[in-house]
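Residues determine shape. We examine one folded chain.
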Amino acid sequence: MHLLTSATLQPDFLAEKKPILLLDTSILPLRSLVRYVAADAFAGAAGKLPIEIWLENIIEYARPEEPQHVAVQPTAIVPWKYGSMLHCRAVDLDLGTFDGRADVEAAERWLQSPHTYDQEQRESHNGIIFRAKDTNNNNNNNNNTYGIFFPGVLPASSSASVLAALSAPDCLFTAITVPDMISWLQDGRCWVCRGKRDICPGCTGGKAQEFDAFMGCGVKLACPLCMGLEFMYKDKEFLEEYYWDEPPPDEKAARDARLRARWGEWGYLGD
């Protein structure tokens, strides 16, 4: 996944795609503070402290340590002063259990463009059905909607500088994958590896075959579900090449670094 940017907010973003996004709600209180500092109505109060103090101390201190993600779907793009406001609704996802490679690939196509995927399935009368339902939050729909500001061309003022530096859309992510969903929405729970992040590809009772992950026993292969199919395929190539021989130290170190980077990407280093 990667950050959603203003360049992504093209006409087909809503009309054709309506992708599923991940919103880090832990940053929203900080963004409210940023809007307070940058607002013209409070420019006098905020001006009592230099902008550098707000940037480097007070607001940085308020940044959360742990992200808290929810799945959202965009509903409208509204022009706003100095930029655009993207309105989203929180959704609960019904994506099934991901029993194999075909399920994962279908789910990721749906996450990128539910409208297009659903239309294709209706026309073919075949395939896997996924659903996004409005989140039931104490029957209060106001708590299930979010407005994310995307700054455009800002005036040269101190308050606008704070807005540009800290109110950029650094909390909304697109290009969501199944491993992203497992990590950030399902607390890392993976039915394939049971949270170990690797499998013995010859001892899974048929699981590995469903993900094209089967090979000899006695090795630890990156889990095809929570670590990602493409990442697993690359790891499998490495393990097959050096199945009978010890890999060169530099290549072993490179593989270890890839695994650590992948664990860190989804918050698994502390597991």
Observations:
- The two ends are 21 Å apart (CA to CA).
- The chain has a mean pLDDT of 80.
- The CA atoms of residues 30 and 62 lie 7 Å apart.
